[in-house]
Design a protein that fits this description.
Layout lengths: L7 E13 L3 E5 L16 E5 L6 E4 L5 E7 L2 E13 L20 H4 L10 H12 L6 H14 L1 E2 L10 H7 L1 E2 L1 H14 L4 E7 L15 E8 L2 E5 L11 E6 L8 E3 L4 E11 L1
Helix pairs in contact: 2-5, 3-5, 4-5
Length: 275
């Protein structure tokens, strides 16, 4: 890990260009999560260009910020750019963080024990217990799940799939960050450890520059010791400068862009840099 001054300022944002053949309702989930709004140094510059009408902003059932609009026929550009203050520290960790019995879990954590679109706990449960059931419970067992995922799945940016489930990721042996996240979430839930999906901005801060193009990132949060802890199944290391956009059961709950009709993605840029 490279030296990083702290606190630090991060510039983040994205530009998406979509083309539609007819007016199409769209919901964009690209804003910084409400919990980090007080860290913003300036109001986020948010624009939707292309002759649209009103843009409605609301919170979904998970507390994520959504922007709803109707994209006209032709091209529409969605642009966000902002500055945020960050403590410049690695993700918090506590090696003594313990698992909690299901009977003691708070309602907010119980919700993240069940299967979901990409996390098939019903078909993966036996494998989870065979692999990890005899390990000491707690943070070390969650870490063992991440280590297993890294040993079985190779990151391949060119083979991303919007329909790949956790079991398919394991069978195919390739995936992107969302697939690593879904696999870890599935194993955790199968072991009665609440886990939820997170997406957001994560730049190459504190690590050497990466060859792959900048993209949105996905990681997970796991309930241990009566709170949520961040884990990163794809990178399998603590990192600096995560900016949460949205949380949900899996990627189906938090699409960056959901259109209710066909669209073509014509342009895509993401930036997350210490300044």
């Amino acid at each position: 890990m490279l030296d990083v001054r702290h606190p630090l300022t991060i510039r983040f944002g994205c530009e998406l260009i979509i083309g539609c053949s007819a007016p199409t309702p769209v919901v964009a989930m690209l804003d910084v999560h409400p919990e980090r709004q007080t860290d913003l140094l300036t109001p986020v510059a948010a624009e939707v260009r292309g002759g649209i009408g009103d843009v409605e902003t609301y919170l979904d059932t998970h507390g994520n910020i959504c922007r709803r609009f109707t994209a006209p026929a032709g091209d529409t550009t969605i642009l966000l750019d902002g500055l945020i203050r960050d403590n410049g520290l690695l993700d918090p960790a506590d090696e003594s963080a313990a698992e909690m019995p299901v009977s003691a879990l708070p309602p907010e954590a119980l919700y993240y024990l069940t299967g979901s679109r990409y996390c098939e706990t019903d078909t993966m449960s036996q494998r989870a217990w065979d692999l990890f059931g005899n390990l000491p419970p707690g943070r070390s067992r969650v870490q063992a799940i991440l280590d297993y995922g890294k040993s079985q799945v190779a990151f391949d940016y060119g083979r991303a799939s919007s329909t790949r489930t956790a079991s398919e990721t394991l069978a195919h042996g390739t995936g992107v960050c969302r697939d690593f996240a879904h696999l870890a979430i599935t194993f955790c839930r199968a072991l009665n450890i609440p886990a939820r999906y997170v997406n957001g901005y994560l730049g190459d801060i504190g690590i050497p520059p990466q060859a792959s193009p900048m993209d949105f990132s996905a990681w997970i949060e796991v309930w241990l010791g009566n709170r949520w802890w961040t884990f990163d199944p794809r990178n399998n290391q603590r990192r600096i400068g995560r900016i949460v956009i949205a949380r949900g059961r899996d990627a189906a709950d938090v699409p960056m862009l959901a259109s209710y009709g066909p669209h073509e993605l014509k342009g895509f840029r993401v930036w997350t840099d210490a300044v």
